[in-house]
Design a protein that fits this description.
The protein is an alpha+beta fold and about 110 residues long. It has one domain (about 10-110). Helix content is about 20%, strand content about 40%. The protein is built from 2 helices and 7 strands, in the order E-E-E-H-E-H-E-E-E. Strands 1, 2, 3, 4, 5, 6 and 7 form a 7-stranded mixed β-sheet that branches.
Length: about 110
């Protein structure tokens, strides 16, 4: 699978206006949280207790917007996208960043310790 499997990506912004990212235990980088629907984003916020201040939507087929987003998040040691992260199970689709575009995507699951 290559690129984002969904055209619209919903991103959460924290109180300071930064894109919400998740750092897996033991990792030195973070993954940007993204959701294929507003409902999935709201469910993650409800389950996790996350207090996001805003949700933005980006068109994953708009190469210019994606490139601008990736340039921005890479400054924060964000190296991939965690699509539709299920807070309870840890299941998600991890989409790698390849330069300034979305690259390979594969299913993953975080393991609870």
């Amino acid at each position: 699978m290559s690129g984002a499997p969904h055209k619209e990506l919903h991103l959460l912004l924290d109180q300071a206006g930064a894109i919400v990212a998740f750092q897996e235990q033991g990792a030195s980088w973070m993954g940007m949280l993204a959701f294929s629907s507003e409902d999935k984003a709201r469910e993650f916020m409800r389950a996790s207790g996350l207090k996001a201040s805003e949700m933005i939507t980006i068109d994953s087929t708009d190469d210019q917007s994606v490139a601008q987003l990736l340039r921005h998040v890479k400054r924060r040691a964000i190296r991939n996208m965690l699509l539709d992260l299920d807070y309870q199970t840890g299941r998600h689709i991890q989409v790698e960043f390849e330069g300034e575009r979305l690259g390979q995507a594969h299913e993953r699951q975080f393991h609870h310790h």
